[in-house]
Amino acid sequence: MFENKQPKRRLARLYKVAAIIAKEYSEGLGSIKQLVYAKRDKHPRIQALYALVNTLYQRKDEIQRLLKKTQLLESESRADPWVIKILITELLYGKKVLSGQTKIEQTIKGYEQIFKAHLSDSIEVPVKDETVSTKPKYVRVNTLKKTVEEAIEAFTDEGWHLIRHSDKTDYNGFIEKVAALKDGEFMVDMHVPRLLIFPPRTHFYNHPAYKNGTVILQDKASCLPVHLLAPPPGSTVLDMCAAPGMKTTQLAAALTNQGVVYAVERDTKRVGILKHIVGSSEATCVKIINKDVLDCAKKDFPGVEYILVDPSCSGSGMTERSTEAENKDLARLEKLAGFQILILRSALTRYPDAKRVAYSTCSLHPEENEEVVRQVLETNYNFKLVDAKKLLNSAWNSFGSSDYGEMGEFCLYARPDEDLTNGFFVAIFERLEEGEQNKFLNNRISNFKNTYMRQTSGKSVG
């Protein structure tokens, strides 16, 4: 005789997918938006996914305190901790109700009054409301599928009104127009001509242009490194830290799919995201390599002329991680800077055909930016730091720290409050021509190195 079994109750897919995204974000696999968009085939409610994960990270300190006080993760050790965090977020800060009948949802609901009691004993921490953000929405036209002119025409046909700004010397006036964009208005960026700018509350989740890959959601600051690297069609380019792939597809667009982009990523999970983004953009010139780029050299990527170095960083410039800019973890910064120095030196020494190298981070900390540039430049005989402002060919206001003198002036920052973008840093290096010198070479270190080499080369072994 068969027993009558109750149908298995399943957790809502929204919560499962949100938990996966939250975990991947914690591992640095991309921004929340990038990860949400990459999972849109897993769950169509992109806006709900983003809201849940974003709220979780806005409230992460409070949620962590609740978990510590209740020891919920210890008592529910068999449950996915990220599912628990997502469900707490929904119960306390989202819909404020869990309607499912799964065991874990019933468990979380059982803690509701305990959570609220602990929260009432805590000091309320103001949380930035994403809905009132003044940062505009940036979309890069994927010129592998449609020209900028065609994209502008398509948006105007939908009823959007183009606001023009033609004076490239008037950056402040440009920023004022961007900040004043109203619903139904958009602009073309004055620095990155393939970039369109829309009002802050514009949503592209369900827009046909986003769904078919005609436009790519990419912050302006993230576009600057490739824009300044400027590889022409037919070039051979190396993207040393390629995932999630926004800059990789921007490189392919710059090449018009003529030439090759070696997109290197050592993390297998991130390679999956990279393949998805590259494939949806029709970037056919991209070759994806799942390998540690520090184990690579000229033989792996022959003829490389342009290199993008956009390594892991603190992410302190990302507006959705704004608290990281205020709270420096010096030990972590030192570790990150060590890796950043290593990978930038690799770019400047292992590829003899390289003409130009772009180094960038989404950090506002000098330890990851000017200090990395200084340490690499002071021992380099083959490259010089070039003035990023001159390459930009338009007015700009934010540059490196005056503590680094002319070296700082040559580096470019994007700052959220001033430039209405995420925070970013960019430095551009070019190979020295015959007779040129690296003005930032540290001669004392160089002389010591040369003396040491002469002394050791004369010694016999044995």
Automatic annotation (TrEMBL):
Segments forming a coiled coil: none
The keyword Isomerase belongs to this UniProt entry's keyword annotation: no
Keyword match Methyltransferase: yes
Superkingdom of the source species: Eukaryota
InterPro entries, A to Z: MeTrfase_RsmB-F_NOP2_cat (IPR049560), MeTrfase_RsmB-F_NOP2_dom (IPR001678), NSUN5_7_fdxn-like (IPR049561), NSUN5_RCM1_N (IPR048889), RCMT (IPR023267), SAM-dependent_MTases_sf (IPR029063)
Positions that bind S-adenosyl-L-methionine: 265, 292, 310
SAM-dependent MTase RsmB/NOP-type domain sequence ranges: 127-432
A Pfam family: Methyltr_RsmB-F
GO cellular component: nucleolus
Biological process, per Gene Ontology: rRNA base methylation
Signal peptide span: none
Catalytic residues of the enzyme: 362 (nucleophile)
Keyword annotations: Methyltransferase, RNA-binding, S-adenosyl-L-methionine, Transferase
GO molecular function: RNA binding; RNA methyltransferase activity
Family: Belongs to the class I-like SAM-binding methyltransferase superfamily. RsmB/NOP family.
Name of protein: SAM-dependent MTase RsmB/NOP-type domain-containing protein
